[in-house]
Amino acid sequence: MLEVKDLSVSIGNNQILRNVNFGFYQPNVVGILGPNGAGKSTLIKSLCGLPQYHIDGEINILNRPLAEWPLEELAKFRALLPQSYNIPFPFKVKDVVSMGSYPHNKGKQSIIDITNAYQIMEALELLDIREKLYTELSGGQKQRVLIGRVLLQLEYQSAYEKIVLFDEPTSSLDWRYQIQVLSLARSLVLSNCLIFIAIHDVNMALEYCDTLILMKNGELLNSFDTAEDIPISSLEELYEMKLEKILLTEDKVLIQNRAN
Amino acid sequence: MNKGRFFIFILLMTTVLLATATLGLIVGQYPIQVEDLASVWSTQNSTAKLVILELRLPRIICAIFIGALLAVTGSCMQGIFRNPLVEPSFIGISAGAASAVVLFLVVLKPILIQYIPLNEFVIPCVAFVGSVVTVKIVINLASIQGRISIGALLLSGIAVNAFCGALMGICIYFADDAQLRSITFWNLGSLASISWREVYILTPIFIGGLLYLFLLRFKLDIASLGEDQAISLGVDMQSLTRRVVYSTCLIVGATVAFAGIIGFVGLLVPHITRFLVGANYKFLLIGSALIGSIVLLSSDIAARSFLDGAELPLGAITALLGAPFFIYQISKMRKEII
Predict the structure, then answer these.
(1) What is the ipTM score, two decimals?
(2) Which residue in A44, A45, B299, B308 has the fewest CB atoms around it within 10 Å?
């Protein structure tokens, strides 16, 4: 579905990613872990094909180079949730969520589009605030509205497998909504979706992701297929701190700071 | 805003616009009674008929056209730059058009007129070229690694506006009396020289410009989300920016060619309209067009009826309305920062 070969990315003279290689060929939840400045957001944005980056190497989506895909075609099966969620104008919550259907209806909304939007707002508990102005919401509410927008974009039938890129989707959310959003993200696997999540919470990542990519200083250190696989030493190297792994149940572990 | 409420809004604004237009027909240096309006058409009373048909009516139509165009281009520019503090005159479009026209009139026209006949379309074309050149400079200056920084955009706008002002200042030094009057006119804006000829030229720009920008309404909504999300939703932001900026150059260039620099309409009106009908461009563009017409038409009526025997510059009146609003916006931003 998505293949990255020798990817190096720079902005101006500043090289941010170096020789990143990976490939995913099945629906999967891929967590991207790494300290601040590791290049997680840059990786996500370059997979989206944003123009401000200078890209060397190859990004192939469904066996076709990213640059050769027409934007409008890509938008039907590939969505991005960026880290910043500022919108300067007073749109209503339901209008922002409905923008997710734009790639499929070019702005002319049918009853089906509106029903889809309402179902997603219901799943994200946004129905009560649907008439509110986006500019007046809290940070966490704004983030959930934009997640709704992304989910709506992927709600439609697609000729291709879908790809979604979440850049820290839970950064402003309380614990309950973190669980809600990550569970919703996970459920996208069922609709043939490859999901990338850049995330800071290691334990959440272990719980909700199938595969983990560890990134540091613009390079991909390692990738692991299951939470049990991941050696504590890799995480210690990644975050430069002492950690310990506690086995909670047979398939559930907890990583925590090792005091002294 | 739902469709029913928006329909009521349109009805209300159209009524206000028609009432303002009627007021525009009767007030001025030569007052006409309302009850005489109907009879003017049938009678041969030459002065009243001349005043209404040849002076006030074209001027009112142009005020409606220009007000709508400036407000709609302002809304669109704010959308693509994602900032409610942007308007065409701030980023050098108007000053570029005006200085190109002034340079043309003072330097080039006296030379060219000996060799080629110049018709009425030359000035709008010159204005368009001037605005495109300045806007290219401003956008290049403001682009940092392919992204337009809003702070750099406004600063480059100030720099280019200052340069264009200086060019016009030099032209003032070399200009004769008639040219001097026209330079003042372009600097401060006025609808005093409008006749049916200007209405005919502005009509296709009014209809074409508004329709073209209205076609971009959904893309402009998406653009408000920011470049990252717009691209992920399949909207090519670079192409959208080019389309909006160049059509704005053409539209504002034409309005500057006939009415001079009229600032702040493109800043003030979109804000009022967003407050009334919301941020959706489908409603915002139509609402801005109506409110922009009302604002410019009433400003023009004020400009020509405050003083006895003289006219206030129209650009000064719109700046008087718009500048306090700009200050209010800045103070609001300060509060948000603190």
Answers:
(1) 0.90
(2) B308
